Amino acid sequence: MAESPIIEVQNITKRFKGLTAVKDVSFSIREGGITGMIGPNGAGKSTTFNMICGYYPPTEGRIFYKGEDITDKKAFEYTNMKIARTFQIMKPLKNLSVLDNVVASSYFGHAGAKSVREARERAMEVLQFTGLFEKRHVLSKDMGTPDQKRLEMARALATKPEMLFLDENMAGLNPAETEEAIRLIRKINESGVTIFLIEHIMQAVVSLCEEVIVLHHGEKIVEGTPEQVMNDPYVMEVYLGMKKEDAHA
Ligand SMILES: Nc1ncnc2c1ncn2[C@@H]1O[C@H](COP(=O)(O)OP(=O)(O)OP(=O)(O)O)[C@@H](O)[C@H]1O
């Protein structure tokens, strides 16, 4: 794994009128790795995610991608920078088939398909890769949550990203479905895509991430390997709601 950061976040703060949602947060995302962000509800995870993905700019601080300052870039410019994201509330084109959803995404980004044929070929490849090939003719609105989440990833992959942001991709999945999602995320990473994810499901964070950032009340409280983070007394208290001695009871 390369050591250089693909994303560097420097002292970002976001204020919404009177409320400071994120306060002076800094971290980096290592190229080639899987980095996770956790924290209780309202900790500032989505706000941080949205700033890094260009949905709104930080009130203060800077964000760098491969050394370039992208703080003022807009979300629509990201696919051209080989960055893609999924949404917590999924946004498929509901009345289109799974295949057409992925075909539509194939036209976007730095490697946007130049013809219908190229877009279809790309989509077929992505559907094979994500395990959705057999369901390619199903309307996306007729699929269950696990397949819709998979489709979100397929649509993102169709833009050929080098960096993928996953926003609570496992919410609403049962343990077996979670395991499948973990396998797919690992496979995407092994294909060379750097991943940054927000996730409430600890099993997924521990199994996938080599680096975890913990937010609480808008501030970064801990950063480290899953093991370091899960054994941190402050994390146990504020995030898991128990004292260290309780955890060993
Ligand atoms: N657009 C906004 N305008 C005003 N306040 C906001 C806005 N977005 C988020 N907030 C507030 O900022 C704080 C952090 O919210 P955020 O959604 O980033 O937390 P989170 O860690 O993602 O929570 P969850 O796990 O519930 O999604 C919350 O108090 C929230 O109400």
UniProtKB/TrEMBL annotation:
Pfam families hit by this protein: ABC_tran (PF00005), BCA_ABC_TP_C (PF12399)
Record has Nucleotide-binding as a keyword: yes
Domain ABC transporter: 7-242
Highest taxon in the source lineage: Bacteria
One GO molecular-function entry: ATP hydrolysis activity
InterPro entries reported for this sequence: AAA+_ATPase, ABC_AA/LPS_Transport, ABC_transporter-like_ATP-bd, BCA_ABC_TP_C, P-loop_NTPase
Keyword field: ATP-binding, Nucleotide-binding, Transport
UniProt GO cellular component terms: plasma membrane
Gene3D superfamilies (alphabetical): P-loop containing nucleotide triphosphate hydrolases (3.40.50.300)
Any single GO BP term: L-isoleucine import across plasma membrane
Protein name as it appears in the record: Amino acid/amide ABC transporter ATP-binding protein 1, HAAT family
Organism name: Enterocloster lavalensis
High-level lineage: Bacteria, Bacillati, Bacillota, Clostridia, Lachnospirales
